[in-house]
């Protein structure tokens, strides 16, 4: 089952306590880190917790998650790949 | 010197492990850890009671006591003869957290309130325990700047001696293991499951540890007069702040480099003089790369032999800088380079190899690096006793207060409802209203930072306008620090058995989070300190900030105090009968902008003296006024601001001191109090300071701020127009 990116966006906003932003304002392909939403390394760790809590995916090395955290799209693909493997 | 850590208790045991390349890492037994229990840790397996530690106190307190005892013994110091001029300065960032966790576990899992383990929660508790037990009455406080605390405490102790406030200091650091810090660093994915491998290509993070180390630092003349055996000379120290990120080091190691350069300047040495560097070398990917870049920037192609000794001890947080100071002094004494266990393969990103086996070398000057959360850096340089000390001009000019930023409660009280997991209750408080200018914070500051840190940033902005041309130092005193943030982290940890950790809240819960965040907000790259010492936490910060200006290390310095109402302190205080109609808990953030007296900025007042110490029991007002008289000219004091109307047991002491001051002045000195308005909290004397500044300005007279702490600390501050 494909992950709905709107659901994922809501979870990102909740887990990072993002202010003044709605899921609709986040584009699927927009970068999450750096220029995009302005997230940093601590937010990446919060996303690790969010993935485990909601999708049962355990990441032990942040390097492992780095390619997945590029955008909402890559994160959704990553979750799907992990769940079907 | 006294030292205890995973490899053993005492300098000789520790050095045998280092000589043999024997890591102290072993399986965790101190507490249950369902998720991470298999990962090796630098736990002290000896029974502290068998080693002689008193039963009283937290695990951190008792470790500090053991190190202090051994240090006093090995220095043949007759403490009674030097008691009034000997202080205690220890770094601690865990404090009594390990013991507090039992309180929270009982509360959350069994709905039971245990009173005992919370008595030694504060990071200043080790200082109180050591000073009380050994009977020391000189200037004493604790520094809580995460992993640089121990090194910063040693540097600050040296400055206290230089400034003439003490002849001898017991200085170092202590931190026990705790489930909180253990799970916290795991939540940051910073722990190497195979044990730390500093500078190795395959390194995967740090290892955890615990321990304590205490050095006896003495003015040279004093040491020679009593015929002490001098082990080494502390020739240089430097502190800086990355002002970059809460957990990640500056990628180029800019702050680390600045601290090393500052230490060299103070020692009047060049990079080529340094024969060995004890690196911070945690074994995390980022630290080791940033630190090696800083080393290359400083030493160029001639980086001296360096090693991280973290795999021997594990990273003992606030104690690590002090433990590594002991390692450096032993390296000098034995003329040996300590090994860097865990290193096997060169990392191309680092391009240098540390010392792989402990071996002989000719050493005259050695450097020790300690870096911590909040980009907090401290560097020490030790030299052989034969080296000739360079003299450096010392300044004694007072500082001026150019502005004050205050967030304080309204005069009225309100009722605060206590939240779960504590039983429902309601406590009368002096609370600050909503933070009106919170909207001026950046979105990241609003979503991430706890309320106390936001209060500190807003107060700092009200007192200081950022200026990249000015070197800014920050010293922010706090009693409980970010206890709210820490409590949420531990509640979650206990309730969910380590699942769903909180990586944002963990670094946000350290005492130096507010000071570190102000540095990021204002771009302050100078000293960044979070002193803590019960009711004299603010004066400890004021002294540190003043001293940065006096030493020429900063153009301006922020001195402040910050504490917030916390449901645990409210509830436990109520159960114990602390809170009543006179003693009402409060909160505030106060930040004073200080500058050198020679600057042409308009000033509100001058701060002409700040002295710290401990009072003897039973309290003797005559003796206390003698102490005040040594520091300030009583003839010019026209008003006294005291911390009376807070803790009832201190009121009699304050009144007796004001009566004795009046007797000597020949007229009744008016006493102004502040706790009736702002309530009782550890850094409340910052409000007292703001009142003293205002009185000095309006009435054009010298005002004495006098503060006592329940656990034995005292402080004075003289404010003049």
Description:
The complex is a heterodimer of chains A (85) and B (721). Helix content of chain A is 52%, strand content 0%. Chain A has one domain: Non-ribosomal Peptide Synthetase Peptidyl Carrier Protein, Chain A (Orthogonal Bundle), CATH 1.10.1200.10. Chain A has 85 residues and is an all-alpha fold. Chain B has 721 residues and is of the alpha/beta class. Chain B folds into 3 domains: 2-383, Thiolase/Chalcone synthase (Peroxisomal Thiolase, Chain A, domain 1), CATH 3.40.47; 399-604, 3-Layer(aba) Sandwich (Peroxisomal Thiolase, Chain A, domain 1), CATH 3.40.47.10; 606-720, 3-Layer(aba) Sandwich (Peroxisomal Thiolase, Chain A, domain 1), CATH 3.40.47. Chain B contains 24 helices and 28 strands. In chain B, the strands form 6 sheets. Chain B has a 10-stranded mixed β-sheet, sandwiched between helices. In chain B, strands 2-1-8-6-4-5-21 form a 7-stranded mixed β-sheet, with helices on both faces. A 5-stranded mixed β-sheet of chain B has the order 9-15-14-10-11. In chain B, strand 1 and strand 2 form a beta hairpin. Chain B is globular, with a radius of gyration of 24 Å.
What layout of secondary structure does this protein have?
The complex is a heterodimer of chains A (85) and B (721).
Chain A: H1 5-16, H2 41-55, H3 62-65, H4 72-84
Helix pairs in contact in A: 1-2
Chain B: E1 2-5, E2 8-9, H1 11-20, E3 41-42, H2 48-51, H3 59-74, H4 79-82, E4 86-91, H5 97-110, H6 125-134, E5 141-143, H7 149-162, E6 168-175, H8 179-187, E7 208-209, E8 211-218, H9 220-225, E9 233-241, H10 254-267, E10 274-278, H11 285-299, E11 306-307, H12 310-313, H13 320-334, E12 336-337, E13 359-360, E14 365-372, E15 376-383, E16 399-407, E17 414-417, E18 426-429, H14 443-448, H15 451-463, E19 472-477, H16 483-495, H17 505-508, H18 513-522, E20 528-529, E21 531-532, H19 537-550, E22 556-563, H20 567-575, E23 588-596, E24 605-614, H21 621-631, E25 637-642, H22 648-665, E26 671-673, H23 675-678, H24 685-699, E27 702-708, E28 713-720
Parallel strand pairs in B: 3-7, 4-5, 4-6, 10-11, 10-14, 19-20, 19-22, 25-26, 25-27
Antiparallel strand pairs in B: 1-2, 1-8, 5-21, 6-8, 9-15, 12-13, 14-15, 16-23, 16-24, 17-18, 22-23, 24-28, 27-28
């Amino acid at each position: 089952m494909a992950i709905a990116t709107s659901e994922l966006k809501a979870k990102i906003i909740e887990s990072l306590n993002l202010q003044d932003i709605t899921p609709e304002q986040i584009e699927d392909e927009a970068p999450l880190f750096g220029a995009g939403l302005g997230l940093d390394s601590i937010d990446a760790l919060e996303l690790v917790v969010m993935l485990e809590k909601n999708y049962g995916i355990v990441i032990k090395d942040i390097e492992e998650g780095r390619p997945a955290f590029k955008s909402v799209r890559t994160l959704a693909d990553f979750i799907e790949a992990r769940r079907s493997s | 010197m006294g030292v205890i850590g995973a490899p053993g208790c005492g300098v000789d045991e520790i050095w045998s492990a280092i000589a043999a390349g024997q890591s102290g890492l072993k399986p965790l037994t101190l507490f249950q850890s369902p998720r991470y229990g298999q990962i090796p840790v630098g736990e002290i397996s000896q029974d502290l009671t068998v080693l002689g530690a008193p039963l009283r106190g937290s695990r951190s307190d008792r470790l500090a006591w053991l190190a202090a005892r051994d240090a006093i013994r090995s220095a043949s110091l007759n403490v009674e003869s030097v008691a009034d001029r000997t202080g205690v300065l220890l770094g601690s960032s865990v404090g009594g957290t390990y013991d507090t966790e039992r309180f929270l576990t009982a509360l959350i899992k069994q709905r039971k309130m245990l009173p005992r383990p919370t008595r030694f929660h504060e990071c200043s508790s080790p200082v109180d325990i050591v000073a009380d037990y050994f009977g020391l009455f000189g200037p004493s406080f604790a520094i809580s700047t995460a992993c640089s605390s121990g090194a910063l405490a040693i540097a600050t102790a040296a400055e206290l001696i230089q400034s003439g406030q003490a002849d001898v200091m017991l200085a170092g650091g202590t931190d026990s293991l705790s489930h909180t810090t253990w799970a916290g660093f795991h939540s940051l994915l910073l722990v190497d499951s195979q044990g730390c491998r500093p500078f190795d290509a395959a390194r995967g993070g740090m290892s955890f540890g615990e321990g304590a180390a205490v050095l006896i630092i003495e003015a040279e003349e004093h040491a020679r007069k009593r015929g002490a055996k001098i082990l080494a000379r502390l020739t240089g120290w430097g502190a800086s702040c990355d002002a970059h990120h809460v957990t990640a080091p500056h990628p180029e190691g800019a702050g680390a480099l600045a601290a090393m350069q500052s230490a060299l300047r103070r020692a009047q040495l060049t990079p080529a003089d340094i024969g060995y560097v004890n690196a911070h070398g945690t074994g995390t990917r980022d630290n080791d790369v940033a630190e090696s870049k800083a080393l290359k920037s400083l030493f160029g192609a001639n980086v001296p032999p360096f090693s991280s000794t973290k795999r021997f001890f594990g990273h003992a947080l606030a104690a690590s800088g002090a433990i590594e100071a002991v390692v450096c002094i032993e390296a000098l004494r034995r003329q040996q380079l300590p090994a860097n266990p865990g290193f096997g393969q060169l990392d191309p990103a680092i391009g240098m190899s540390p010392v792989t086996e402990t071996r002989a070398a000719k050493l005259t000057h050695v450097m020790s690096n300690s870096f911590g959360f909040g980009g907090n850096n401290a560097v020490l340089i030790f030299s052989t006793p034969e080296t000739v000390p360079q003299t450096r001009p010392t300044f004694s000019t007072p500082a001026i207060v150019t502005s004050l930023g205050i967030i304080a409660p309204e005069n009225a009280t309100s009722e605060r409802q206590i939240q779960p997991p504590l039983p429902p209750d309601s406590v009368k408080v002096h609370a600050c209203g909503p933070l009106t200018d919170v909207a001026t914070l950046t979105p990241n500051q609003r979503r991430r930072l706890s309320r106390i840190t936001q209060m500190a940033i807003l107060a700092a902005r009200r007192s200081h306008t950022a200026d990249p041309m000015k070197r800014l130092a920050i010293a922010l005193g706090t009693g409980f620090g970010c206890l709210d943030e820490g409590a949420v982290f531990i509640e979650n940890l206990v309730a969910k058995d380590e699942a769903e950790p909180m990586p944002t809240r963990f670094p946000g819960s350290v005492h130096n989070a507010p000071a570190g965040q102000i540095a990021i907000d204002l771009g302050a790259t100078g000293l960044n300190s979070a002193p803590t010492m019960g009711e004299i936490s603010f004066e400890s910060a004021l002294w540190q900030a003043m001293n940065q200006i006096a030493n020429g290390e900063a153009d301006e310095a922020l001195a402040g105090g910050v504490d917030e109402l916390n449901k645990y302190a409210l509830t436990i205080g109520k159960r114990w009968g602390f809170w009543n109609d006179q003693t009402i808990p409060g909160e505030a953030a106060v930040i004073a902008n200080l500058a050198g007296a020679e600057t042409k900025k308009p000033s509100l007042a001058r701060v002409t003296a700040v002295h710290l110490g401990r009072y003897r029991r039973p309290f003797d007002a005559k003796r206390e006024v003698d102490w005040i008289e040594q520091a300030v000219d009583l003839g010019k004091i026209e008003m006294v601001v005291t911390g009376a109307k807070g803790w009832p047991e201190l009121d009699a002491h304050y009144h007796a001191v004001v009566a004795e001051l009046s007797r000597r002045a020949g007229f009744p000195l008016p006493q102004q109090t502040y706790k009736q308005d702002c309530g009782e909290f550890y850094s409340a004397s910052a409000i007292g300071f703001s009142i003293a500044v205002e009185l000095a300005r309006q009435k054009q007279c010298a005002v004495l701020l006098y503060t006592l702490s329940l656990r034995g600390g005292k402080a004075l501050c003289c404010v003049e127009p």
